[in-house]
Amino acid sequence: MGYDKRLALIEKMHEHTQNGRVDWEETVNNNEFIVSKSNLSVVVNKGQNQNNGTLYTFSIMDEEGDTIDEFNDESWGEDDHIFGMCRDLYNMARGYAKGTEQALDKLLTSFGDVPF
């Protein structure tokens, strides 16, 4: 049921986030970040699965904020590559939304001349 498109979406978001082309924002919920494109939004959330392991959930929402689709890293079974990509995407989204790069730049500058 379209899981290939969902995986392609994760792959594209990963690629675009890695290249700094996605403007992630924090939501009011803990461990959750959102990006909006074309009157749609994607929310990525870090939670727990039934075995208390990490679970990355993606929700696609329409312009009214209604969830129109939801899937997670386990939608394709136990796949380490997909889990790793979802983990990386979540961490990049969190870093972007929280301004991690700017904070690191400030800290590095405060310790002296840094060749970055």
Task: Describe the protein's topology.
Blueprint: H1 3-18, E1 25-26, E2 32-37, E3 40-48, E4 54-61, E5 67-72, H2 80-98, H3 100-110
Antiparallel strand pairs: 1-2, 2-3, 3-4, 4-5
Helix pairs in contact: 1-2
Brief synopsis:
This protein is of the alpha+beta class and 116 residues long. It has three helices and five strands; from the N terminus they run H-E-E-E-E-E-H-H. It has one domain (3-104).
3D structure, described in words:
The protein has 116 residues and is of the alpha+beta class. The chain has one domain (3-104). It is built from three helices and five strands, in the order H-E-E-E-E-E-H-H. A five-stranded antiparallel β-sheet has the order 1-2-3-4-5, with helices on one face. It is globular, with a radius of gyration of 16 Å. The N and C termini lie far apart (45 Å).
Question: Which features would summarize this protein structure in a list?
Answer:
116 residues; alpha+beta; 5-stranded antiparallel sheet; 3 helices; globular
- Number of DSSP helical runs: 3
Low-confidence stretches: none
Global mean pLDDT = 93
The structure class reads alpha+beta
Quaternary state of the chains = single chain
The tally of beta strands, per DSSP, is 5
Q: Estimate nothing, just give the exact number of structural domains.
A: 1
Instruction: Write out the strand line-up for the largest beta sheet, numbering strands in chain order.
Output: 1-2-3-4-5
Beta-strand residue fraction = 25-35%
Distance between the termini: 45 Å
Rg (C-alpha, Å): 16 Å
Major beta-sheet overview: 5 strands, antiparallel
Q: What is the percent of helical residues?
A: 25-40%
Principal-axis shape: globular
Secondary-structure element order, as H and E?
Answer: HEEEEEHH
